[in-house]
Amino acid sequence: GTFIGIAEECGKIADMGVWTLSEACAQLARWKAKGLEIGVMAVNVSAQEFRDHRLLDSLQNALSQGGISPSELEVEITESVLMSETETSQRIIERMRELGVGISIDDFGTGYSSLSYLKRLRPNQLKIDRSFVSDTATDNDSRAIVNGIVGLANALSLTVVAEGVETLEQEQFLRDTGCQTLQGYFIGRPMPVEQFEAWMSKRQKGA
Predict the structure, then answer these.
(1) Which residues touch 70 (CB under 8 Å, ≥6 apart)?
(2) pLDDT value, residue 173
(3) How far is CA 192 from CA 2, 189, 203, in A?
(4) Using CA atoms, how far apart are residues 17 and 152, in angstroms rounded to an integer?
(5) Distance between CA atoms of 58 and 54, rounded to whole angstroms?
(6) What topology is assigned to 1-104 in CATH?
(7) Tens of pLDDT along 152-190?
């Protein structure tokens, strides 16, 4: 959005990223203390944040201050960012993996992905871009691409997330395809913390 664009232009996006990581881990700790079973907290990292020398220290500090296990945090990085400087990306990813943090490739299928780069980077998760998901109800090519990505992820023992799920038809197709996790307005819209807590509590109780 406009806010993020301005932050990037002003050179403040990396500072915001440091705060976001810290707040995400602190919020996860608060939810765990309330008995909410959140699982893994995913945090987006922008291109500037990914290249910022403070990133790894920020990750360690956020985990330590929040009292969160590294396995409970997942960093989402777009495919285009990872592919722009593959050697540098690989070093950073390896350090994250040493910390025990999960790696998710966001917007998968929109960049210059290749099997060789997946082999080198060894992410934990692929996120299918919403542009493919939105067309699955009407476009055979999009359905084939989604099927292919899910098959590839399964073959490499990666989890796969479909972004931008907005209809029942999309959900049914993705479930039938074997996609483990869905994200989008049909599943749940962005909501304030208090509303999310009530929503999660209701889901856990099976109501």
Answers:
(1) 63, 99, 100, 101
(2) 96
(3) 21, 10, 16
(4) 31
(5) 6
(6) TIM Barrel (3.20.20)
(7) 999 999 999 999 999 999 999 999 999 989 999 999 999
Residue type at position 137: A
Count of beta carbons in the 10 Å neighbourhood of residue 48? 18
The pLDDT of 56-67, averaged and rounded, is: 95
Cα–Cα distance, 204 to 207 (Å, whole number) = 8
Q: Show the tokens assigned to 139.
A: 């476009």
- pLDDT tens by residue, 29-41: 999 999 999 999 9
Q: Where are the domains of the chain?
A: 1-104, 124-206
User: What value does the mean pLDDT of the chain take?
Assistant: 90
Q: Model's pTM, two decimal places?
A: 0.86
